[in-house]
Amino acid sequence: MKETPDLYGAYPRLEDYQLAELTPLGERRTTSAGEVLQQAGESSDEFIVVLDGTVAIVQDTTEPERVIAVHGPRRFLGEIGMLTGQQFFLSAVAQEPGEVLAVPPEQLRELVSRDPRLADLILRAFLIRRSLQLTLGAGFAIIGSRFSADTRRLRDFAARNRLPHHWIDLENDAEAERLLRELGLGRDDTPVVIWRGQVLRNPDNERLATAVGLRTAMPVRSVCDLIVVGAGPAGLAAAVYGASEGLATVVLDSVATGGQAGTSSRIENYLGFPAGVSGAELADLAEIQARRFGAEFIVPATAVALLERDGHHVVQLEDEARISSRAVLIASGVRYRKLDLPGLDDVTSTSVYYAATELEANLCRHDPVVVVGGGNSAGQAAVFLAQHAAQVVLVVRSNELGQDMSRYLADRIERTERIAVLVHSEVRAASGDRMLDEVVVEDLKTGQRHVEPAKALFVFIGSLPHVRWLSDQIALDDRGFVRTGSQLPGRRQVLETSRTGVFAAGDVRSGAVRRVAAAVGEGALAVRMVHEHLGRYS
């Protein structure tokens, strides 16, 4: 087979000096035709460089096998899961007799810490490869109906965690019925997940995560220094700075790293990224960085209670597991408010979304869509969806677009032909037979109503804090956000809550500036306060 061209930076070739640096660190091995060098469904403890011959990256869960890429000499194998502890979603198979260099991960980590250029090359390639895998639908299969809420839950979970997968639609894909018959299953058994010989019938998120190697074991230490609840920008920043400064740090999140920022198609006003950065990429980079310093991630893991035991803070999880710590950072973020409209319940599982990622964009490609909201999240969604949808109607309650939205974003929307903006307006009703067909929009000044065709409705109308798990353990404001610092009686640090040793950062905090940069800053500042707390009470 011919070597795959490196069109996107996913398949770079090592330079002579880079290969010379790696060679004394690894073991040279001969390979035979058909030898599996990396197996889908397994993890790897080696960084492999092709020295001679060719190696094919294949999806061997399909019949016939699908070749994704072919690597020749001086190219390296692997994907982002090598850095985050995930399984491989594709296999690497030698196509002919040849030779490879296998470098132990600890040797590689030591080298890249001294050679930032090599580190950037490997990381960029791994990130682009994961993006290509997502586009190609590599990985596990989800078989289910588009009208099933559980099918959507599984697809959303896979998308939020950037897990390569493909969806086989019961309504439109003839392969679905054939596969179900072969597995001895019926429609009532769906949704099902198929991966490496496993058939999971309507698994919950934790079971799916375990099956694909996403969720790791619980920390073995009895008490850690810092538990971070929530892996959005604030939580990820705390993980990076906490672990890098020697704190034994454990990060929990109920869905995925990145939080709401992780669903953003493009963050353009974040320091250091003049061309913008996707929320998913920012989350991946931060997680890799935190893991490199020793932070432990448990995802998904839903916190259900905050307790006290033997002078330590205890976070109880949904599966009854408990983790003890000397300090806790509440960074559990917010969730979007939901619309309450006549007719909306009938189409919610198929046509109503609270994020705008590639997953949602592919579902409404070439269709008219409506976006509701006047903030940056709604604006970013409208701009992104305009690249895929036939028409985007942005419904804004305020009198002008720039009232609650960054000026740069409002200007871009006004220049985008496929976006129509309806100010001082609200959506009043939705209709459709299981799938959305149209919405009714009312002008708040004139009271006039009209119908807008829509196959999907995207809702960004404010947020509610994720604080139910705190019960009455922490003081909240009248909207349910966590009070900190001067909002509480007594002398407390600016991010400290009503319980000593428990801090809050990011969108969940009362009075927080809801921007990615602000959340990152608070996460970093919280680590300093944790150090002061541990120094005072250790």
Question: How would you characterize the overall build of this protein?
Answer:
- With 538 residues, the chain is α/β, with parallel strands linked by helices.
- It folds into four domains: 16-133, Jelly Rolls (Sandwich), CATH 2.60.120; 140-212, Glutaredoxin, CATH 3.40.30.10; 223-327 and 468-536, FAD/NAD(P)-binding domain; 347-461, FAD/NAD(P)-binding domain, CATH 3.50.50.60.
- The strands form seven sheets. Strands 12, 13, 14, 15, 16, 17 and 28 form a seven-stranded mixed β-sheet that branches. A five-stranded parallel β-sheet has the order 19-26-20-21-22.
- The model has no long low-confidence stretch (mean pLDDT 93).
Which SSEs are present, and which pair or pack?
Blueprint: H1 16-22, E1 27-31, E2 36-38, E3 47-52, E4 55-59, E5 66-71, H2 81-84, E6 91-94, E7 98-103, H3 105-114, H4 116-136, E8 140-144, H5 149-160, E9 165-169, H6 174-183, E10 192-195, E11 198-201, H7 205-211, E12 223-229, H8 233-244, E13 249-252, H9 279-292, E14 296-298, E15 303-309, E16 312-317, E17 322-330, E18 334-336, H10 348-351, E19 352-353, H11 358-363, E20 368-372, H12 376-385, E21 391-395, H13 407-415, E22 419-422, E23 425-431, E24 438-443, E25 449-453, E26 456-459, E27 463-465, E28 502-504, H14 516-537
Parallel strand pairs: 8-9, 12-13, 12-17, 13-14, 17-28, 19-26, 20-21, 20-26, 21-22
Antiparallel strand pairs: 1-7, 2-6, 3-7, 4-5, 4-6, 8-10, 10-11, 15-16, 16-17, 18-27, 23-24, 24-25
Helix pairs in contact: 3-4, 8-9, 8-14, 12-13
